[in-house]
Design brief:
Distance between the termini: 71 Å
Order of helices and strands: HEHEHEHEHHHEEHEH
Number of strands: 7
Structural class: alpha/beta
Largest sheet: 5 strands, mixed
Number of helices: 9
Strand order of the largest sheet: 2-1-3-4-7
Shape: globular
Radius of gyration: 28 Å
Length: about 240
């Protein structure tokens, strides 16, 4: 008797299923589509110490899915971070980055600038000693040992010789990352077959991770520009 009842239930279930399928087929297909939500591009403000070199570098990234504003101020360390605060003002940015160098500034000012920027929740892309060290890492697997900034330009131009391109830096030169130079920096390394900018990120991060960061002012040679560039590449 129990088996008979079970068969009746199964037959009824199959019948109900067929009826549902017929009803679904009789329904008219809907052609209406939901309106996609508006996706706002994130806004990124980059406040640079250098008025020429850094903006000429960052402005050449072909960022398409974010709005990037790069400003060269001529300010340094703590004064640069405070300048960034003024530039932000009442405007709203999704990210604010401060780009500055150790150069010959006091250790206290350099370290304090990093802490102040972090207090404001700004990203920090510093270089010890100078921004050109970040450029060198695109072309040379430097291990982070001491290299005085006075030697940066000669080192860069030595590395650029095979490309027949010159970096016009120095105290008397106009420190601009030209389009030709930038193309080399983001181009493919023939030996590794990898993008040079990716190699620079990897090298800078490796050096950074070896340090304890108790006093970034003492950590020559190092740079955290890789953090900002990695972020920009996400929106290219």
């Amino acid at each position: 008797m129990r088996m008979k009842n079970k068969k009746i239930e199964q037959t009824a279930a199959r019948k109900r299923h067929k009826e549902r399928l017929k009803a679904d087929r009789r329904k008219e297909p809907t052609l209406k589509r939901g309106y996609p939500g508006l996706i706002e591009k994130p806004s990124i403000l980059i406040v640079c110490e250098g008025e020429n070199t850094e903006p000429s570098y960052f402005n050449q990234f072909k960022v398409t899915s974010a709005t990037v504003k790069s400003v060269g101020t001529g300010y340094n360390t703590i004064s640069l971070v405070k300048k960034a605060k003024k530039i932000v003002g009442s405007d709203k940015f999704d990210q604010v980055w401060c780009v500055f160098d150790k150069d010959a500034f006091k250790d206290h000012d350099f370290n304090r600038a990093i802490k102040l920027a972090e207090q404001y929740r700004y990203g920090v892309a510093y270089s010890n000693q100078a921004f050109e060290y970040w450029l060198i890492l695109h072309l040379d697997d430097h291990q982070g040992g001491r290299m005085n900034r006075d030697n940066y330009n000669d080192k860069i131009n030595e590395l650029l010789k095979p490309f027949h391109v010159e970096y016009n830096g120095g105290d008397t030169g106009c420190k601009i990352v030209s389009e030709d130079f930038f193309d080399i920096l983001v181009g493919t390394d023939k030996k590794s077959r990898r993008k040079r900018v990716d190699l620079a990120i990897e090298r800078a991060e490796r050096i950074y991770e070896r340090l304890d960061h108790f006093s970034p002012a003492k950590e020559e040679s190092s740079t955290t520009v890789f953090r900002l560039v990695r972020e920009l590449i996400k929106y290219v």
